[in-house]
Every structure is written in structure tokens, then in C-alpha cells.
TrEMBL record:
<feature type="compositionally biased region" description="Basic and acidic residues">
    <location>
        <begin position="409"/>
        <end position="418"/>
    </location>
</feature>
<feature type="region of interest" description="Disordered">
    <location>
        <begin position="280"/>
        <end position="359"/>
    </location>
</feature>
<feature type="domain" description="CID">
    <location>
        <begin position="1"/>
        <end position="133"/>
    </location>
</feature>
<feature type="compositionally biased region" description="Polar residues">
    <location>
        <begin position="332"/>
        <end position="354"/>
    </location>
</feature>
<feature type="region of interest" description="Disordered">
    <location>
        <begin position="379"/>
        <end position="418"/>
    </location>
</feature>
<feature type="coiled-coil region">
    <location>
        <begin position="233"/>
        <end position="260"/>
    </location>
</feature>
<keyword id="KW-0175">Coiled coil</keyword>
<dbReference type="Pfam" id="PF04818">
    <property type="entry name" value="CID"/>
</dbReference>
<dbReference type="InterPro" id="IPR006569">
    <property type="entry name" value="CID_dom"/>
</dbReference>
<dbReference type="InterPro" id="IPR047883">
    <property type="entry name" value="Rtt103-like_CID"/>
</dbReference>
<feature type="compositionally biased region" description="Acidic residues">
    <location>
        <begin position="391"/>
        <end position="407"/>
    </location>
</feature>
<dbReference type="GO" id="GO:0099122">
    <property type="term" value="F:RNA polymerase II C-terminal domain binding"/>
</dbReference>
<dbReference type="GO" id="GO:0031124">
    <property type="term" value="P:mRNA 3'-end processing"/>
</dbReference>
<dbReference type="InterPro" id="IPR008942">
    <property type="entry name" value="ENTH_VHS"/>
</dbReference>
<protein>
    <submittedName>
        <fullName>DUF618-domain-containing protein</fullName>
    </submittedName>
</protein>
Length: 418
């Protein structure tokens, strides 16, 4: 079958997941390797227009063609696939089921293990897949797929405030990785093929057309690099800003650290001085004795205990005091119905203590107070008896020696009663 666009599209449309179908189409495509660039363009267009399961089959076809040509050292298709493979893989990966995505990741992993494509192309493919995972908010990076310093599923709100300014510049740099690597790979390959080739130069019109195409590739690569440089400058500026902030904070904290160390040493010295003063004030001797009595000329190691409270004398009235007064005023004579009163028992006499002979007047008054008698009192026909207490009445003294006559007469009158 002659090579035409329709023939290529027919081969691509007839593909299925069987190995025979993929191998047959790959052999026909490799046979027409002179049209590698055109075949790859048609393949990419068909992949974009196909459903998800069909895209996986087209990736399998590209894998088969690339590995076979790599093994035969005919790298026409490897070079042709390099600029567009990252975009094609991302297109097939986006919106696919988890099963299809796992199979696509396995194919990309095989490319890395077998070194089918150059390292920049391989890294660009992995970066696009990682970016899609980041947009979906799920990190499925494994094996050789590495994530950014922020993590693919890390939300901006979960980042520290100091690092949030780095998020956008870092994302811009990541987005420029794929275009730069793809355009650089294409431009370098075309340049080597056209300028450094040892083959004979083509005819001038053809050579001029190829040079025009090379200029376009070089301009595209230059623009991609310029965008990447701009993004990286913004990232570096943000990093320098954070670095400067942390450097100033570090200097401040170092000054605080030095000041705190000096203050701690100063306080420690003061504490030791105070402890020594306390020990000197307590007077602890060097020996094993920890206490010394004041008679020995020393001080007690322990503070003197506060003296106990003195015991207060009870305020209990003496016997014969208030109780006797109550009897004196309130004890009635039991009066029977026949009108004869019964006298209460004679109150017992209280023996008063004797004082020294040096005070005869006090002794005399004491003797007078020790004698008392019951005086019956008739009140409304009833008889009462009360005790003559010391200091209330004057008993019969039995003699008037040393007493004035008027006083004696008054005492006798008082003793007779009214």
C-alpha cells in the first residue's frame, strides 16, 4: 500500500488492543520511516480525536514503533516522537480511568527503564503527568516520578504563610519545563541534522526551505527558554526574599540567645551568693553538730520556736460565791399548813485563810467575816432565813474591846433587828 495520509489514518483507525494488530501497524509505519514526521503528526491528530480507550492503543503503537526503531538503531521515529510525546501522553492521561492511567504510567516507566528517549524528554513526560495529578488533587507519584517540594496534593491553605509566596513561581517554573525540553530537543535535532550533517547538501531551494524550518524551531525554543528564565527569576526573587527575612530573624535570635546566656549566668552567681549568706546566717559548723546552744556562744541552726500560749485561768466562780448568793436571796423556808416554819439547815461555815501576824487589822476583819448567822425574816406571815455573808451584816463580836462605843451600839442595834 502506497503511503498517503488516508492510508495512515486507515491503519490507525483499524487498531485494537491485540498485540498482532499493534505489531502489524507498527511494521507498516516503520517501513515508511522516510515519512516519520508526517506519520507522527497524523498519529497525534488521531489521538486527540479518539476516545480514552483508543488513546491508550495509540500510545501502545508509539511504544512499539519507538522500541523497535531504537533496537535497530534507526531512530527516525524516536526523534519524530520526542517533541510531541509529552503532549500526547498528557492528552491520553487526562480524563482517563484509573485503570487506563495505571497502564499509561507503566508504559512511561518502561521508557525510563530502557532509555528509549533522552532524559529531557522523559522528564518532560513525567512532569506533565505529575502536573495533571496535582490539578486533580491526588498524588499518585511512584517509582521514578518525583514531586515538587510542596507535594502534588498540597493545598495552598495548608502551606506556612512564609512559603505561600513560593507556590505560584514554582508552579510557573514547572509549567515551563515541558515546553522548554520539547522545543530544545526538536531544535537541537534539526540543527544537528541540517548543519552538522556529513551528508551532501540538498539542492539550494530544498536547503533554503529546511533552513527556514530550522529557524522556526530555534525561535520556538528560544521563546520557551525566555519564558522559563522569567519564571525562574521570579522564583529566585521569592526565595531570596524568604532567605533575607530568615537571615534577619536569625541575627535577632542570636543576639537574644547571647543576652539570655549572660543574664542566666548573672542570676546564677546571685543565687550562689544568696545561698552562701543563708548558710552563714544559719551558722552551720564544719563538724557534724548541726545545733549549738546559746550557752555555748553559738546560734541555733534552726529558728527559735514561738513560745506556747499561756494557759488562762478559768473564770469559774469560787465555791460559796454566786451559788450562795442565790441561796441567800431565793431559798424559802418551807412553811407547813399550821403556820410553823421549818428553818433551813445552818449554812456551813467557810474557813478563811489566816494572814501573817504582821497585819492584825486584816486578821481581825477576816475573823469578823468568818462568822455569820441566820437571821429569820418574816414576810407576810411566812418565815424566812438568810445567811449573813461577810461584808453584808455584822455578827455579834462577843466583846467590844478596841471598838468605839458608838460603833458597838450600832452593831448591837443591827443584831437585834427591827
Amino acid at each position: 500500500m502506497a503511503y498517503t495520509d488516508d492510508a495512515v489514518l486507515a491503519k490507525l483507525s483499524a487498531l485494537n488492543e491485540s498485540h498482532d494488530s499493534i505489531a502489524t501497524a507498527a511494521q507498516w509505519i516503520m517501513f515508511h520511516r522516510r515519512h516519520a514526521d508526517r506519520t507522527v503528526q497524523l498519529w497525534l491528530q488521531r489521538l486527540k480525536d479518539s476516545p480514552s480507550h483508543k488513546r491508550l492503543v495509540l500510545i501502545y503503537l508509539a511504544n512499539e514503533v519507538a522500541q523497535q526503531t531504537k533496537a535497530r538503531h534507526k531512530e527516525d521515529f524516536v526523534v519524530a516522537f520526542s517533541p510531541v510525546l509529552a503532549e500526547a501522553t498528557a492528552t491520553a492521561y487526562k480524563g482517563a480511568t484509573s485503570d487506563v492511567q495505571s497502564k499509561l504510567r507503566r508504559v512511561v516507566q518502561v521508557w525510563r527503564e530502557r532509555h528509549i528517549f533522552e532524559s529531557p524528554i522523559q522528564e518532560a513526560i513525567e512532569a506533565r503527568l505529575q502536573e495533571l495529578d496535582s490539578q486533580r488533587g491526588t498524588s499518585k507519584a511512584s517509582g521514578a516520578f518525583g514531586g515538587s517540594i510542596f507535594g502534588s496534593s498540597l493545598a495552598p491553605s495548608s502551606l506556612p504563610a512564609e512559603l505561600r509566596d513560593l507556590l505560584k513561581p514554582q508552579q510557573d517554573v514547572s509549567k515551563q519545563v515541558l515546553p522548554v525540553k520539547s522545543s530544545l530537543s526538536t531544535a537541537n535535532a534539526e540543527y544537528e541534522k541540517l548543519i552538522n550533517s556529513k551528508d551532501a547538501l540538498p539542492a539550494p531551494p530544498v536547503y533554503a526551505a529546511k533552513l527556514s524550518g530550522l529557524l522556526k524551531h530555534l525561535a520556538s525554543a528560544e521563546n520557551a527558554v525566555n519564558e522559563s528564565v522569567k519564571a525562574r527569576k521570579e522564583l529566585v526573587d521569592a526565595l531570596l526574599k524568604i532567605l533575607e527575612t530568615n537571615r534577619n530573624a536569625l541575627e535577632t535570635e542570636l543576639s537574644q540567645q547571647k543576652l539570655l546566656a549572660e543574664r542566666r549566668a548573672e542570676v546564677d552567681v546571685k543565687r550562689q551568693e544568696v545561698e552562701l549568706e543563708i548558710i552563714r546566717g544559719m551558722g552551720v559548723p564544719e563538724g557534724n553538730d548541726h545545733h549549738r546552744s546559746p550557752q555555748d556562744g553559738g546560734h541555733s541552726a534552726s529558728p527559735e520556736q514561738e513560745p506556747e500560749r499561756p494557759e488562762m485561768e478559768a473564770l469559774t466562780p469560787p465555791s460559796g460565791g454566786d451559788a450562795d448568793d442565790l441561796d441567800f436571796y431565793n431559798n424559802d423556808v418551807v412553811t407547813p399548813q399550821n403556820g410553823h416554819g421549818l428553818q433551813a439547815p445552818v449554812q456551813e461555815q467557810h474557813q478563811k485563810p489566816t494572814f501573817p501576824s504582821a497585819a492584825p487589822g486584816i486578821e481581825m476583819l477576816s475573823n469578823i467575816a468568818s462568822q455569820y448567822q441566820s437571821v429569820p425574816v418574816a414576810l407576810n406571815g411566812s418565815h424566812k432565813r438568810r445567811r449573813v455573808d461577810s461584808g453584808d451584816d455584822f455578827p455579834d463580836l462577843g466583846g467590844d474591846d478596841g471598838i468605839d462605843a458608838d460603833v458597838a451600839e450600832m452593831i448591837r442595834k443591827e443584831s437585834r433587828g427591827p
